[in-house]
Design brief:
- By secondary structure, this protein is an alpha+beta fold.
- The protein folds into 2 domains: 93 residues, Arc Repressor Mutant, subunit A; 129 residues, 2-Layer Sandwich (Muramoyl-pentapeptide Carboxypeptidase, domain 2), CATH 3.30.1380.
- It is 48% helix and 14% strand.
- It has a 4-stranded antiparallel β-sheet. A 3-stranded antiparallel β-sheet has the order 3-5-4.
- Strand 1 and strand 2 form a beta hairpin.
- Helix 1 packs across helix 3, helix 2 crosses helix 3 and helix 5 runs parallel beside helix 8.
- 29% of the residues are buried.
- It comes from Xylanimonas oleitrophica.
């Protein structure tokens, strides 16, 4: 593998360096917003070494500095830079099949209209429900959400559960997906995101609310989950 800067001779990149950079990108996708220090701790590397990989990934447009919107008084000193993955970074993680999928769904929509696309999306996520449901054994809603995140992570969605806002009347959690294997398809066919949200609701036995999607330009897909007991028939 080589890196190229316009007007310069390609420079070989060591395979281990490329592997480490890929791992950094994957961790930014799964853990972002995340700092160089946090990444160094997870990877067992020096902060300086991680910052070098981050600088290259940022230069390539695969990650970006996260603009914090956390309210409160400004702290003294320079705040640590936190990184999130960009659309270009998601493309790097996706592989080369998204364009074929887009073309196939365009053909389906031309032949059967939007209803045909919606039916395809519903069938796709019905299969996910049937595959996941027997493995969601927890009764406690927080534990059940963690089980769902683990299943999604195993399927490549870089999923995790994070605490919801403390200001809500009902305790909530947020299911975060740092990677979306169907991002570029969902950018054009929102039926996939809608069907996935319905699947989460069915799997968790409660109404869920999609707050953000990677396909819509966010750095992660975020779904709000009320932490209350599942309805009968979902366990």
């Amino acid at each position: 593998m080589t890196t190229t800067t316009p007007g310069t001779t390609p420079v070989p990149v060591d395979a281990s360096e490329s592997t480490t950079r890929r791992r950094v990108l994957e961790l930014v996708a799964s853990s972002g917003p995340v700092t160089a220090a946090d990444l160094a701790s997870q990877l067992g590397l020096t902060s300086a070494g991680v910052r070098r990989h981050l600088a290259l990934l940022e230069e390539e447009g695969k990650i970006a500095v996260h603009a914090s919107r956390t309210p409160g008084r400004a702290r003294r000193g320079r705040p640590a830079r936190s990184y999130v993955v960009t659309s270009g970074g998601q493309s790097e993680l996706l592989g080369g099949y998204s364009e074929i999928a887009v073309q196939a769904l365009r053909h389906l929509r031309a032949a059967g209209g939007s209803a045909a696309v919606a039916a395809f999306a519903a069938e796709r996520y019905d299969d996910v429900v049937q595959r996941y449901l027997p493995r969601l054994t927890a009764v406690d809603p927080a534990d059940r959400a963690e089980q769902l995140a683990a299943l999604l992570a195993a399927d490549g969605y870089a999923a995790s559960v994070r605490p919801g806002p403390a200001t809500t009347l009902v305790p909530t959690a947020q299911l975060c997906q740092g990677h979306c294997p169907v991002q570029h398809v969902a950018e054009e066919f929102g039926e996939l995101c809608e069907a996935e949200t319905r699947a989460f609701s069915e799997l968790l036995g409660t109404h869920v609310q999609r707050l953000a999607t990677i396909a819509g330009g966010a750095h992660a897909c975020v779904t709000n989950l009320p932490l209350r007991a599942p309805e009968e028939g979902t366990r």
